[in-house]
Design a protein that fits this description.
globular, VC0467-like, 5 helices, ten-stranded mixed beta sheet, alpha+beta
Amino acid sequence: MTTPQTPSEPGVPLTFLVATPHLRGTLFEGAVILLLEHDQSGALGLIVNAPTSADAAELVPALGEHTGSVAWLGGPVEPEGGWCLYPEAVGLPGELRLCPGLYASSDLEVLCAVARAGQPFMLVMGYAGWAAGQLVAEAREGVWLWVEQEDARLLWDVPAKDRWQQAIAALGVDPGRLVAGGAQA
């Protein structure tokens, strides 16, 4: 498990990628992805609206009885690796503050501390990754809509099944009017 090299700075909004109909029939159909890193070398994000049927403790026995949380599918890359998303810092190395009320870590010790503290958390297995320039090219093709938000309410206050609709609504877009393909000038 690795932590992104470019942490979010305070005051920088969260970026969510919202799948368009172009992705119908793929793993990313209806996906909402929290973008953790995006620079000239590529991008990394976590699907945040795909809960699995597995309990987090089934996948990470070190959690013991300190769970009850389901595991989430974060993407197809390194599905054996996990990320923890949680609302309050636990004061350990490896924590990445994304915005007020949202931290991320791929460190097992942090995950266990979060669980012991009784915090809500998302154990997200795997991630979505893009090579250099790939995400920008996909956005130009109309594959992703970019939604920026100042806080993590979409994760903590909106049920997973409603996150895609809420993210689209934040843009003021009628999902029924979205079509596959991108705009070309």
